[in-house]
Amino acid sequence: QDIYIPLISKGFQHQFWQAVKSGADQAAAEFGVRITFEGPDNETMVDRQIDMLAAALANNPSAIGFAALDSQAAIPLLQQAADAGIPVIAFDSGVESDIPATTATTDNVAAAALAADKMAELIGGAGKVAVVAHDQTSRTGIDRRDGFLNQIEANYPDIEVVSVQYGAGDQLQSTEVAKAILTANPDLVGMFGTNEGSAIGIVNAIREMATEGVTIIGYDSGKAQTDAIREGLMAGAITQNPVGIGYETVKAAVAAMNGEELPAIIDTGFYYYDQSNIDDAEIQAVLYD
Amino acid sequence: MSYLVEMRGIEKRFPGVHALKSVQFNLRPGEVHALMGENGAGKSTLMKIMSGIYARDGGEMFVDGTPVAPDSPRAAQDLGIGIIHQELSLMNDLTAAQNVLIGREPRRSFGRLDEPELNRRAAEIFASLRLAMDPRTKVSTQTIARQQLIEIAKALSYNPRVLIMDEPTAALNDAEIAELFAVIAKLKADGVGIVYISHRMDEIKRIADRVTILRDGAYIDTLDAADTPLSKIIQLMVGREVTQSRATVPDLSQAPVALEVRGLSRGKDVRDVSFSVRKGEILGFAGLMGAGRTEVARIIFGADPRDAGEIRVGGYAVDILTPHAAVQAGIGYLSEDRKHFGLAVDMTVRANIAMANMAQFTSRTGVLDEGAMKRIAVDYISRLGIRTPSDMQAVRLLSGGNQQKVVIAKWLLRDCDVLIFDEPTRGIDVGAKSEIYALLEDLAAQGRAIIVISSELPEVMRLSHRIAVMCEGRLTGILPGGAQTTQEQIMELATRRDSALTVAEDA
Amino acid sequence: MTTTTANTPQTMLSRIIAAGTHQRVLAFASLVVLLIGFSIASPNFMQTSNMIAILQATSVNGVLAVAVTLVIITGGIDLSVGTMMTFCAVITGVVLTYAGMPLLLGVFAAIATGALCGSMSGTFVAKMKIPPFIATLGMMLILKGLSLVISGTRPIYFNDTPGFSLISRGSIIGDIFPAMPIPNGVLILFIVAGVTAYILNRTVLGRYCFALGSNEESVRLSGVNTDRWKIAIYALAGGIVGIAGLLIASRLNSAQPALGLGYELEAIAAVVIGGTSLSGGRGSILGSLIGALIMAVLTNGLRVLSVAQEWQTVVTGAIIILAVYADMMRRKGAS
Amino acid sequence: MTTTTANTPQTMLSRIIAAGTHQRVLAFASLVVLLIGFSIASPNFMQTSNMIAILQATSVNGVLAVAVTLVIITGGIDLSVGTMMTFCAVITGVVLTYAGMPLLLGVFAAIATGALCGSMSGTFVAKMKIPPFIATLGMMLILKGLSLVISGTRPIYFNDTPGFSLISRGSIIGDIFPAMPIPNGVLILFIVAGVTAYILNRTVLGRYCFALGSNEESVRLSGVNTDRWKIAIYALAGGIVGIAGLLIASRLNSAQPALGLGYELEAIAAVVIGGTSLSGGRGSILGSLIGALIMAVLTNGLRVLSVAQEWQTVVTGAIIILAVYADMMRRKGAS
Ligand SMILES: Nc1ncnc2c1ncn2[C@@H]1O[C@H](COP(=O)(O)OP(=O)(O)OP(=O)(O)O)[C@@H](O)[C@H]1O
Ligand SMILES: Nc1ncnc2c1ncn2[C@@H]1O[C@H](COP(=O)(O)OP(=O)(O)OP(=O)(O)O)[C@@H](O)[C@H]1O
Ligand SMILES: [Mg+2]
Ligand SMILES: [Mg+2]
To answer: Which CDD domains does the UniProt entry name for this protein (chain B) (predicted)?
Structure first.
């Protein structure tokens, strides 16, 4: 009888989630378990995720990995899993309950605050900046936006955030959003993109409008973003450790099945990378493209 | 004298068309007043004004001597004016009963429908028309003739004081027409005033009390039907003399066979039909409604599948499965239902005339030659006398008869070896009819084989070199054309039912 | 052969089924084939708990499909059902959580909000003569934005209204027959479908649905106030969407303001798979229900089989085409 | 009043415009009102660079709208254009990046792939008699899944084909007239629209588009091989979608396999705003172009004004309804 661990993620097609999946696959091979990895098309589909969870439970899994789109909505099903003795590992975002044995996650608020610090440093602590965010309502979207905004507000009084707009993480839409922001604010000195699609949208906009003097800070990796950093178009970006998240989730699931003690949070960490350190082994290990 | 309805100095203009020029019309209670005129003379337009569908541009209208201006069909209904339209306007997905009583459904509490009561009432109305129709049959499964009857039932169900019938018999056969006339007689006796529009001249003599004639949107005259000869009416309508003649049957025994059909069958609609047409021959098809003539034509044309049978064109067996294949094999088919099967009514006259013959107007790169299309369209417009402001008019805006002429033009242009015309002169005026007869005879003389399906016996007898008669899906006989065949002979074959066999097959 | 023709004296339920099956045995066959296929492929598929999961996954989309069926039968389309559902949920959240009103008022608010929004769409279509596609596309965007505005772009939780989550998650049937713990959400779906089928086939409103879709001009010329009826039909559809809003909010125990986009396409797909014609005049509620079930079974089955997600999409697309094709073939064979 | 009515001897361009304006001055007026309104509201709006940004934002959706116009005029609908565009981009990525073929072959591959997919949809519709909604919904899912499968769910970059990004971003016009740095993507949109308008109004294929949408049965009974023409029309639309795939891939310098869903609704919206009827038989390419521009101007203008995102959605919805309403009113006034 094989050990089956379904991972229900928040997304599937995006590079970030594919990197999480590759980490999970790696761990699955290492520990000799079978995993599946699924997620809804976008991060608004809370009920679709619940349906996925229900289907996963039908297969009598040994453990479940779950990245909750809304931490409350899934509780009845998670309770059902707990009652059946199936360990639940939360990843990426926490679940507000004591059911998950542990949570493998990045502190997005702190990571975005680091982006704000880097931005302030690069633009000399003053000027107008804007944010292209990927989502208005999802946990990561809110955390990264607010992490950045709050840090600026608290520590950099001379920096003004003139616009926060949303491009759904879609590269093309984010490009149009960034172009409109640049048109409306010709004196902009910095832009922060809260995920890969948003950051690349900003890069595209700058490229297409041939604007100069705007400092771009991105989030996540992906080839287009690392290329933009190497070229110098983008100053730098925050990266999480998605491969690590996937790996730790499966590893923790196996441990939980074996009744081992687990810490409440497995912080998989985040890093700021730019031209200077992009080729460091430590950074290379967490970048994906 | 008191008129039920009186109209004076009525004016109506459409873009590019002065449809009515100071027209007058009046109607007495208990009379049948025929409204006559060529296609596009303005008959339907005048009646649409009377029934509140169009607003008049000028003139006045009185009901019982009071000036009125009905601004909607509902308002006209409230004045007691009902209309049966020339173009069918039923809800195809609903049943006969649901159509007849739309807007007046018997209800229970909370808006619940009383369906049995609905069906009962509709059945009563059908019975009063002596129409054998299950109230629960869906309209879309009915032939246009029967749909026309449903439309008539619907108009009658309002108990109108004025009933306008715009070509009610265009799709009906003789038996149904007789039933309709019986209903009209009853209505007359009840004091209902009836406006009757038809291109079937014989009907005027049979039922009309008075006749009003329009020509080119202008009022010509109102006459007593009893003491006016038909020829006079026709002359006033058309503005010239129209001669009626019988077919001269040429000797075609040596002519090669153009189309041969053997053992054609499809369910119960068509059973083992075999016949052939020679080059230069006009073969008429007679029969009652639902005899299966249309079905035979549609099968030959590949529009419907067949269960069995062989089709040979010019001596070679051809396997016709689609209309495209039929046209490739040189067969053309003019459908009896122009609105659904004959025309793209939103497109222009020019585009419709060219539709079956696009290759002629297409360069090798696929570009259309609009100039050539225009020349051809203008040519047919004048040859068939199609009343239209230009060849770029949307067909939808033409009068019914003129739409029919567009379909005829389409197939005349295609120039097929075998042409099947299904009810070709439906809704066409006497003048234009004889033009079309002449065109058909011309085509036959050029060596084309022509099949004419018609429910008007005079038409079949006027045109046919031979007359095929069908009854209940079976070809019951083929009679020679010309003077030696009588209506009685045709009717005898058309009603030669084979009920014993039918029962056996049904069992 | 619409479903409006049944009139022999039978019970209501059997009538509806009879009316439906007349044309609908067909898509039903595809559903059965799918169920059998998945049962053979995976032993985990045909478990009571999984069947219930499928039914529950159908509930929201099923109710939306019922709503949109009404509009489609009139010859229209409703793209706003997804975001309207969310909007109704958000309004319920405001009523229950922010204003602390009693549960019943929340339920009423959801349905009334839906009916109001629907009657607005209906007014755009009937009175302003805006094509239904555009009118409801506009409503879809307006309601999407308003949901975010009203909720302050964050979910509204129903933790203070304990009974609320029972609307969808509780199980009245399960309380009586413990062997069949069918959630109330599913029960509500079937009740909504049954009542709507009754309205469609046995009341004036339903009659005008079919009549408008068949030939609107002819209905108008018969002196029926088509505008008013059309608005009523859109309003009824809106009210049903309000019920969907309750179901999803109760299931998630929260009103998620960003959710909703994309649900309209899924609901319309269920309707069309169920044999309702997008050109109007023909259709049945039972068909839409079966359409929604086909989609839910397909999604669930492929997941239970652990088919890779990218292939799930491919297979779903192919099976939808095949199911409708099989349906067409059988219908042709039958006629 | 279809657009097929132009026939006075004029130049091709003026003919197309004349054919369009006949019915289309109308939506055009809404566009002008929007442009004037935004210019007054924000000084930054009416800059050359922003106008070019709007045009560029229109390019992909505009090309998709042109493609979908053809299908809608036949009385069909195409839900697959968004994911088909992505699929074409992915295939181009495979040809250029994975197989290292020359640029021209990549261009050919995109268009051929689109045409092939389109002819498949067309076959489902014409031969298998599957309703266009379902046939193209199925294709939408199939192509979405296949894009992920073929690309291995990661973007394919075109870094090895340096000329590729010039397809959309370069500016031939700008090289000649430096004051008008209109990107090639925009030029391509106008060329595609012009050629398609010519095909629609001056060739047999176009004539059959309108005829099929007007009354398919009458066309079939005129002996036309309607199936073949329908497939050809869907294939042409697919080929145009292939061009959209090239434009988006070139603009992003990568084939993004996850993108595409939602683009179909936007394209259809542009078509309907442009006055093409969803019931077929009527429509114009110029209208769809104007529809796409209206949507791009609206989105861009609201963003330049920094309206809060949730309100942007609300205002967009309201303005779409209003624009179409104004259009209806003027059309009524004109007739
Ligand atoms: N809505 C309209 N728009 C433009 N022209 C119209 C419209 N309705 C009718 N016409 C034109 O008005 C004229 C009169 O048409 P009408 O339908 O009254 O003729 P009719 O006498 O009923 O002919 P028929 O015997 O062929 O039915 C025709 O030339 C027709 O083309
Ligand atoms: N009484 C009827 N009720 C319903 N359908 C009928 C009836 N009579 C005939 N039909 C249908 O009509 C078709 C065969 O008649 P068809 O139209 O070919 O006859 P026709 O001789 O051309 O008569 P018509 O004068 O009506 O055109 C069949 O599809 C048959 O089912
Ligand atoms: Mg007339
Ligand atoms: Mg017939």
So the answer is: ABC_Carb_Monos_I (cd03216), ABC_Carb_Monos_II (cd03215)
Task: State both tokens at C137.
Answer: 């596309």
Closest chain C residue to the Cα of A38, Cα to Cα: C309
Q: Which atom of ligand 1 is nearest to B399's Cα?
A: 17
What mean pLDDT comes out for the span B380-402?
92
Residue to substitute in B142, B149, B294, B333 for testing ligand 2 pocket (most ligand atoms within 8 angstroms of CB): B294
Distance, CA of B375 to CA of B384 (rounded, Å): 14
- Quote the tokens at residue B79: 């004045």
Inter-helix orientation angle C132-151/D263-273, to 10° = 130
Cα–Cα distance for residue pair B98/B165, rounded to 1 Å: 21
A231 touches D: beta carbon within 8 Å:
no
In this predicted complex, what is the ipTM?
0.89
Q: How far is CA D177 from CA A286, C150, D167, D181, in A?
A: 46, 50, 18, 7
Number of H helices, E strands in chain C: 13, 2
Chain B CA closest to residue D215: B344
Alpha-carbon dihedral D207, D211, D216, D217, rounded to 10 degrees: -100
Which residues 24-63 of A are in CB contact (within 8 Å) with C? 36-39, 41-42, 44-47, 50-52, 54-60
CA–CA separation, C83 and D322 (whole Å): 20
Domain extents in chain C? 23-36+43-328
Question: What are the φ and ψ backbone dihedral angles of A195, each rounded to 5 degrees?
Answer: -155, -175
d(CA A217, CA A237): 5
Q: Are strands A159-166 and A127-133 parallel, antiparallel or unpaired?
A: parallel
Average pLDDT over residues C102-115: 97
Q: What is the 3-state secondary structure (H, E, C) of C89-122?
A: HHHHHHHHHHCCCCHHHHHHHHHHHHHHHHHHHH
Instruction: Residue D98: name the closest of D154, D167, D170, D166 by CA.
Output: D154
The DSSP call for residue A169 is T
Q: What is the whole-number distance in angstroms between the Cα of residue B472 and the centre of ligand 4? A: 12
Distance B403 CA to ligand 1 centre (A): 10
- C139 → chain D, closest CA residue: D317
Distance CA D270, CA D187 (A): 19
For chain C, percent of residues with pLDDT exceeding 70:
91
Please provide the size of chain C in residues. Answer: 335
CATH number of D23-36+43-328: 1.10.3470
CB proximity list for A52: less than 8 A, separation 6 or greater: A8, A38, A39, A40, C303
Q: Which range, of A225-229, B73-77, C116-120, averages the lowest pLDDT?
A: B73-77
| E strand or H helix at B60 | strand B58-63
Query: How many other C-beta atoms are found inside a 10 Å radius of the C-beta of residue B382?
Result: 9
Structure tokens belonging to residue B181? 């006339």
Mutate to test the interface with A, among C154, C252, C293, C295 (most CBs of A within 10 A): C252
Centroid of ligand 2 to alpha carbon of B299 (angstroms): 14
Domains, chain B, with CATH or none? 5-238 (3.40.50.300), 257-503 (3.40.50.300)
**D207 and chain B in contact, CB less than 8 A:** yes
pLDDT in tens, B26-69: 999 999 999 999 999 999 999 999 999 899 999 999 999 999 99
Write out pLDDT tens, residues D131-175.
999 999 999 999 999 999 999 988 999 988 989 999 988 889 988
Cα–Cα distance, B45 to B49 (Å, whole number): 6
> CB of B19 closer than 6 A to ligand 1?
yes
The total of other beta-carbon atoms located within 10 Å of residue B68's CB is 18
List Cβ neighbours of B118 (8 Å cut-off, separation of 6 or more). Answer: B97, B98, B101, B105, B106, B135
For an interface test with D, the pick among A177, A208, A221 (most D C-beta atoms closer than 10 Å) comes out as: A208
